[in-house]
Amino acid sequence: MQFYSLHKTAPAVSFRTAAISGQAPDKGLYFPEYIPRLDQGLIDNIETLANEEIAFRVIHPYVGNDIDEASLYRIVSETIQFPFPLVPVTEKISSLELFHGPTLAFKDVGARFMSRCLSYFIQKDPGAFSKKVTVLVATSGDTGGAVANGFDNVPGIEVVILYPSKRVSEVQEKQLTANGANIHALEVNGSFDDCQRMVKQAFVNERLNQHLYLTSANSINVARWLPQQFYYFFAYKQWGNKNNPPVISVPSGNFGNICAGLLAKASGLPVEHFIAACNANDVIPGFMQTGEYHPQPAHATLSNAMDVGDPSNFVRVMELFDQQLNLVKENVTAYSIDDATTVQTLTDVYNATGYLLEPHGAVGYTALEKYLENHPGKKGIVLETAHPVKFPAVINEVLPGALQVPASVAALMKKTSRQTVIQPDFSQLEDFLLSI
Ligand SMILES: *Cc1c(COP(=O)(O)O)cnc(C)c1O
Questions:
Q1: Which residues does ligand 1 sit against, CB inside 6 Å?
Q2: 254, 306, 337, 342: which to mutate for ligand 1, most atoms within 8 A of CB?
Q3: What is the pLDDT of residue 191?
Q4: How many Å lie between the centroid of ligand 1 and the Cα of residue 126?
Q5: For residue range 310-342, what is the model confidence (pLDDT) as tens digits?
Q6: Percent of the chain clearing pLDDT 90 (strictly above)
Q7: Cα(337)–Cα(97) distance, rounded to whole angstroms?
Q8: Taking residues 343-366, what's their average pLDDT?
Q9: pTM
Q10: pLDDT higher than threshold 90 for residue 196
């Protein structure tokens, strides 16, 4: 399998190169040259297969010979070492809980898979990396924690994470700062945009690139994007009525997760329809309605991991459907849900069923309800992308007493933090990177 650049000027590369470099040299996103067709046995017998087996069979065609089969099996097994339960909420709606990983958000799977692939490539051919491999990432919350945890104590890789001071939650900050010696948290006295600007500057800085092999761990990397397909197979495995496939609602920001679901469907997974559930950042719902794409600066909402004004993976959705908007619409309906409605849903669902959503899942739930109202006879799944404990402020305000802190979080909060405070000044980042 080769991956081509969506800007079409850089050469096609194998999985290894795409995973190591992140983006193509022409700045395009990498896309698989064909969509593998799954063996029908995988679908027909899915209930009898272990998650590891399913994940291996889904990812193998994309990785090809770049990782030997035994190692790939080990990597996927380690990646998905936690449950992905499908929990019924009402007669029509179930929640696929993607928050049982170490940092309590769905990004764990992509980060764990990517870190293990990079580590494999470095160990197999250390000579190819004459400089120290350093993963550099800016985070507004969940990404940094998943990346830190995924690379924690992975040999041969240093990780530097920039986060805006006082703008991440307490749990998120602990996840960034209480890790092994190879994970370096930089608390920047500035905004997320400052962090992102400094990271971008580092990638093009000659002096740094002479000393270090800098790589990014953001969601456009194929090694983070492709394993997200697993969720949709695990959902289908647990879906009772195979004759009436599920409508799946995906809380969406950068559109990486939903695009992985669409890829899974294109390779043969039965899915009735997809819902792209957005918050007030409604660039894609607007585009689906008017055919005009107007990127915007991100607005802050309660579902902050989806505060994206120019979703980077949407170009992959368009490519999957040959750039034809009408084909996208046949497969995906997009909704924009505001904060007031999100909180209302969170409260109503808890009061009616006892099931506690968090803001991202509540956006997905609301959108799914709207779709099902117009499609009687259909049933659906909402992807619950984070654990409610990551959003205590809003939940404690509207549903006091509902939130229970899991033991793993209580233990995390007792760990010692280690971070370095820097100013939003590139030279301070440069000095730090040259010092590790
Ligand atoms: C990242 C994230 C999303 C959005 O996923 P995309 O792949 O960017 O669309 C949704 N919910 C949570 C909790 C997230 O961390």
A1: 105, 107, 142, 219, 251-257, 305-306, 360, 385-386
A2: 306
A3: 84
A4: 33
A5: 899 999 999 999 999 999 999 999 999 999 999
A6: 84
A7: 21
A8: 98
A9: 0.95
A10: no
**What is the distance in A from the centroid of ligand 1 to the CA of 306?**
6
* pLDDT, tens digit (0-9, with 9 covering 90-100), for 96-131: 999 999 999 999 999 999 999 999 999 998 888 888
Sheet holding 86-88, edge to edge: 86-88, 93-97, 380-384, 247-251, 273-278, 332-336
pLDDT at 395 over 90: yes
Residue nearest to atom 14 of ligand 1 (CA): 305
Ligand 1 centroid from CA 252, angstroms: 6
Q: How many CB atoms lie within 10 A of CB 286?
A: 16
In testing the pocket of ligand 1, which one of 360, 384, 395 has its CB within 8 Å of the most ligand atoms?
Answer: 360
CA atoms 69, 72, 78, 84: torsion sign: negative
CA 362 – ligand 1 centroid, Å: 13
Q: What would the two tokens of residue 407 be?
A: 């033991």
Instruction: Tell me which residue has its CA closest to atom 2 in ligand 1.
Output: 305
Q: How far is the CA of 212 from the centre of ligand 1 (A)?
A: 30
Confidence band, pLDDT 50/70/90 cuts, at residue 166: confident
Residue in 254, 301, 307 to alter for ligand 1 test, most ligand atoms within 8 A of Cβ: 254
